[in-house]
Design brief:
17 helices, disordered N terminus, alpha/beta, about 15% strand, six-stranded parallel beta sheet
Length: about 425
């Protein structure tokens, strides 16, 4: 993929070697990404092939009652399925037929693998092929894995998008392709800015309708909106797209550099970029100032969870004045993170992978002002007197773009203000 890099490369700062950790993990599985994907594509349905635990996880995370007929569900593997005493494929075929009869608006059906389905070696790829033959012309059946055996929760979107890529039509037309789920209002705003910059054709993946996939080919310039889409980026490059290297659009600085990198890839003059973006930058910095007063000088420890940690660390250190104690990430893709790593303060300690016990020991030793972590660790750390921020909340919130920078900073300032208000010292 190195041959498809579209912008300058940046030299890495003086960072110590990252800590490599492997051990007990505390993360949600990839099924969690269904919560935002099913809202993005209302003509798609996500059918998890898993256990009752899988069903409870998704329903709880989505906050949707089942009688509201959400666009996701679970084909529950019972004891007989798990013991190999029943044909799970026959039961799956029956459930899919019932689902499509009841929900005729479904145009794309994702079969989503889980830990239980992978343990019993249920081949959902073959099941998708079989169901496509059975329901040809009625629905497209795809599959991907949402198992948490070896992944973290944001990788569910990476798997879903990779399932869509083979269906994307080929085209050599010049276009910008924004990859990664964004809130609709944020996406509309960003596309409007790209049009003002002079980029006429802008498409998104995932699209707002699963049947209206954008084209891809040698004329496609690929701009990642999310940092956890390594597999998707490589698959699109294999289809001929050119990857634009840029920081991710978190904060004022990152968002401006992200849009400026796209403009440079299309040959747009820096003066035009400045004319469009500089007024937004000035307004964004003014809006950010009150949050910076709360965050500046505070010590931050990011535990590995969402793969957003490195871009967020860059934003919080450079634009909000926070001191980085340690920045953990489940997986470190140095190619997709090169521009972000170059902007981290010299000496920033990274860690890759997760060993919960060891990381908690370092948190307790360092006693940071704020810990960004998963839900399972937040309450125990709060009980020990440390302010925390749930990392999963950042995936569900509209935090991309210059206009959202102050809102993003407030997500981190809020727990510090809350702890200060509750302090009786």
């Amino acid at each position: 993929m190195a041959s498809s890099i579209a912008t300058r490369s940046s030299a890495a700062p003086d960072l110590p070697p990252p800590l490599k950790e492997s051990g007990q993990r505390e993360v949600f599985c990839g099924l969690t990404s269904i919560v935002w994907l099913h809202r993005r594509m209302p003509d798609a349905f996500f059918l998890v092939v898993g256990s009752r635990t899988c069903a409870h996880l998704i329903q709880s995370a989505a906050g949707v009652m089942i009688f509201a007929e959400p666009r996701f569900g679970t084909a529950i593997l019972g004891e007989r399925d798990l013991a190999g005493l029943a044909d799970a494929n026959e039961e799956l075929d029956r459930l899919v037929a019932q689902l499509l009869e009841r929900r005729p608006e479904i145009r794309t059906l994702f079969l989503v693998g889980s830990c239980p389905s992978e343990v019993i070696k249920l081949d959902l790829a073959k099941a998708a092929e079989r169901l496509n033959r059975q329901h040809a012309g009625r629905v497209m059946v795809l599959n991907y894995s949402g198992s948490g055996i070896e992944t973290t929760f944001t990788q569910g979107e990476d798997g879903a998008l990779q399932a869509l890529i083979p269906l994307m039509p080929a085209s050599s037309a010049q276009q910008l392709l924004i990859v990664g789920t964004l809130a609709d209002a944020v996406e509309d705003r960003l596309i409007g800015l790209f049009h003002k910059l002079g980029i006429e054709r802008v498409a998104s993946l995932p699209p707002r309708r699963s049947t209206e996939l954008p084209a891809v080919g040698p004329g496609t310039k690929l701009l990642l909106a999310q940092p956890f889409l390594s597999g998707t980026a490589r698959a699109l490059v294999d289809r001929g797209a050119e990857l634009i290297r840029a920081p991710y659009p978190f904060g004022v600085e990152g968002s401006r550099d992200w849009m400026a990198a796209a403009a440079a890839a299309f040959g747009i003059a820096p003066a035009q970029v400045a004319a469009v973006l500089d007024p937004l930058v000035e307004r964004g910095r003014r809006a950010l100032a009150p949050q910076r007063e709360t965050l500046a000088g505070k010590r931050l420890f990011l535990l590995p969870d969402s793969q957003l940690e490195i871009p967020l660390a860059r934003f919080l250190s450079r634009e909000c004045g926070m001191e980085l104690v340690e920045v953990g990430t489940p997986y470190l893709d140095r190619q997709l993170m090169a521009e972000e790593l170059a902007l981290l303060p010299a000496g920033t300690q990274l860690s890759e992978g997760q060993h919960v016990d060891n990381q908690l020991l370092r948190v307790r030793e360092q006693r940071p002002d704020l810990v960004v972590c998963g839900l399972g660790l937040a309450n125990p750390l709060e009980a020990e007197g440390m302010a925390t921020k749930w990392s999963i909340e950042l995936v569900f919130s509209p935090i991309h773009g210059i206009d959202q920078a102050a809102d993003l900073a407030e997500l981190f300032a809020r727990p510090l203000r809350r702890r200060s208000a509750l302090s009786f010292a």
